[in-house]
């Protein structure tokens, strides 16, 4: 058994014939078991009728989020910006963009969230600023100390004497060269993303100090942490070497044309994370409220590249295995319980000792969960991720099974797609998963009183919306809410994890802890019914009690099934417990048995 200080998430992993067993036994900080809800502010809730979501809209829905079981909200970019890339092009790190409100609105949001026990995390983009940022304007005019705040190069002369960019690096946004000429400075500046998103030179110590000031500023305003954006792109090769051709069948201006060995995943990226972690630790050491402020990191890469951020101090490096594993993520027909089990085991076994696991199923950059996996798998993935140990992150709308919205080329706003063409844009656009939240069946799905909103509302909002799901006896939302309650039980927080594949079609996982009610999640990946034995979970009673079931399932809360022979409907998703438990057995009401009456009330049983 691993025993670490209470600030760590101590785990021991045992690979046994039946499957993975993860033992979790340590006192934990708030962030080590929290449920994070990502809010895309433009499309969450519009409070003033201008067709764009805002901070006051978010504040108006905090009670709803609290009731849903959300403990932490992560708000995507809200800093002042020209909005070329939906706020990822920042022109002032210390102010709120007027489209979202004011600093006073933000302070009110944080204060109300605190009253409800909800933590607030903000997006922070340290790789680049907008070309409208005052620092870039000063740098472009060679005004010290800002002259070297950004990556500049005078370029090279080709055989004809024509000045060219210093190398062949390409923009992530498929717009060709990652270098742009400045007439004012008579030099090229680097932009790994849009032309107006200018890359910092983070080898400049002055820039690193600026990042620390920005972090402290928002921590001072009450946020519980920051999510660091686009970490793999922070540093580039100091020698500016050309990148090799990838061999992929894409145009030479597309990002995929090159193998990005000199512009991604450099070791300096990790070393900067260590500098930031030291800054967080220093900040935490000076506070008196007992709240540990934390750093979440975004970095798409291999599992080894991502989990390495743990070693350099990231509290939570986002785990994208359920997104970036192409077999599991994008081909529902070839999904299998074995692949899901592998994803879970791969992350747990790759984490360094004492790290906190985390699970992400969707976000603003990828197709929605219901679109990737199919609507019949919404309960499946919400049950699994909510009842895995550690941190769970859900993207707004996935809790009600929202799907991607079809947008024409003319309706597309995402620069990553707009830099392609009408024949290819759908392979690059991120707009379909960023459309307005579907609150009800009124004007603009209850998102806004305005019929003109920044992205088209999905036409299925009349039937697929939160209000309808709250009114239904059973729904994706109610299942999410029920699983969230079970997540917050003692066993949901601290129970050992065991994962098992039964036959070819059934995935099962348990959470067990001596002296506490156990939990068992059982999933049938097949479209056809299957009968299986769950005797692998011998610590459960011979009769199992249903706590929640997928929206198409006939089983209700309180129904019982036999452990030795359970018939699962096609695409079934169940949460079970032993049938011989009663709330009177406990002095602590945070037990599964004590939740059963409220679960029955949820589902009108």
UniProtKB/TrEMBL annotation:
Keyword Protein biosynthesis: no
Chain's gene name: LOC107268502
Name of the protein this chain belongs to: alpha-glucosidase
Molecular-function annotations in GO: alpha-1,4-glucosidase activity
Pfam families recorded: Alpha-amylase
Keyword terms, alphabetized: Glycoprotein, Glycosidase, Hydrolase, Signal
Record Gene3D superfamilies: Glycosidases, Golgi alpha-mannosidase II, Oligo-1,6-glucosidase, Domain 2
Family label: Belongs to the glycosyl hydrolase 13 family.
Matches recorded under InterPro entries: GH, GH13_cat_dom, Glyco_hydro_b, O16G_dom_2
EC number per UniProt: 3.2.1.20
GO biological process: carbohydrate metabolic process
Catalytically driven reaction(s): Hydrolysis of terminal, non-reducing (1->4)-linked alpha-D-glucose residues with release of alpha-D-glucose
Domain named Glycosyl hydrolase family 13 catalytic: residues: 38-434
Annotated organism of origin: Cephus cinctus (Wheat stem sawfly)
SUPFAM superfamilies (UniProt xref): (Trans)glycosidases (SSF51445)
Domain of life where this protein originates: Eukaryota
Membrane among keywords: no
Signal peptide segment: 1-26
CDD domains: AmyAc_maltase (cd11328)
């Amino acid at each position: 058994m691993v025993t670490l200080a209470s600030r760590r998430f101590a785990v021991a992993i045992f690979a046994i014939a039946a499957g993975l067993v993860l033992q979790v036994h340590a006192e934990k900080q708030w962030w080590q078991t929290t449920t994070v809800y990502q809010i895309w502010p433009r499309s969450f809730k519009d409070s003033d009728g201008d067709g764009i979501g805002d901070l006051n809209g978010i504040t108006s829905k905090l009670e709803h989020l609290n009731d849903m079981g959300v403990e932490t909200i992560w708000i995507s970019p809200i800093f002042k910006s020209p909005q070329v890339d939906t706020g990822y092009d920042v022109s002032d790190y210390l102010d709120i963009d007027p489209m979202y409100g004011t600093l006073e609105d933000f302070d009110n949001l944080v204060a109300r969230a605190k009253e409800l026990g909800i933590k607030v995390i903000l997006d922070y983009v340290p790789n680049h600023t907008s070309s409208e940022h005052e620092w870039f304007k000063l740098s472009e005019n060679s005004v010290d100390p800002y002259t070297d705040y950004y990556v500049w190069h005078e370029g090279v002369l080709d055989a004809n004497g024509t000045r060219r960019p210093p190398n062949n690096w390409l923009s992530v946004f498929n717009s060709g060269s990652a270098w742009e000429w400045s007439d004012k400075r008579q030099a090229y500046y680097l932009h790994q993303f849009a032309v107006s998103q200018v890359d910092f030179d983070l080898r400049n110590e002055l820039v690193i100090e600026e990042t620390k000031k920005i972090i402290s500023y928002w921590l001072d305003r009450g946020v519980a942490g920051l999510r660091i954006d686009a970490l793999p792109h922070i540093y580039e090769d100091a020698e500016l070497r050309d990148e090799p051709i990838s061999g992929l069948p894409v145009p030479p201006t597309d990002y995929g044309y090159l193998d990005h060995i000199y512009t991604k995943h450099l070791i300096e990226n990790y070393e900067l994370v260590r500098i930031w972690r030291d800054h967080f630790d220093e900040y935490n050491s000076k506070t008196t409220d007992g709240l540990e402020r934390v750093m979440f990191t975004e970095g798409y890469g291999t599992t080894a590249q991502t989990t390495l951020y743990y070693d350099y101090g990231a509290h939570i490096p986002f785990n994208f295995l359920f997104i970036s594993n192409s077999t599991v993520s994008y081909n529902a027909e070839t999904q299998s319980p074995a692949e899901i089990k592998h994803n879970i085991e791969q992350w747990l076994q790759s984490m360094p000792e004492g790290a906190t696991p985390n699970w992400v199923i969707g976000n603003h950059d990828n197709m929605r969960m219901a679109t990737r996996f199919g609507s019949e798998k919404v309960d499946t993935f919400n049950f699994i991720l909510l009842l895995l140990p550690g941190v769970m992150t859900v993207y707004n709308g996935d809790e009600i099974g929202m799907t991607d919205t079809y947008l024409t080329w003319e309706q597309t706003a995402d620069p990553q797609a707009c830099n392609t063409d009408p024949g290819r844009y759908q392979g690059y656009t991120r707009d379909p998963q960023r459309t307005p939240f579907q609150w009800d069946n009124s004007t603009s799905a209850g998102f806004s009183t305005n019929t003109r909103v920044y992205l088209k509302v999905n036409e299925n909002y009349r039937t697929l919306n939160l209000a309808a799901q709250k009114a239904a006896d059973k729904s994706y939302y109610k299942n999410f809410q029920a699983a969230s309650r079970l997540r917050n039980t003692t066993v949901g927080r601290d129970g050992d994890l065991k994962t098992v594949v039964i036959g070819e079609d059934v995935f099962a996982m348990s959470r067990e802890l001596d002296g506490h009610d156990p939990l068992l999640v059982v999933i049938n990946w097949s479209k056809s019914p299957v009968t299986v034995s769950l005797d692998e979970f011998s610590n459960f009673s011979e009769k199992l009690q249903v706590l929640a079931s997928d929206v198409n399932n006939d089983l209700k809360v309180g129904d019982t099934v036999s452990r030795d022979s359970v018939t699962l409907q096609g695409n079934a998703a169940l949460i079970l417990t032993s049938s011989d438990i009663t709330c009177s057995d406990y002095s602590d009401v945070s037990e599964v048995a004590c939740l059963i009456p409220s679960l029955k009330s949820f589902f009108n049983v």
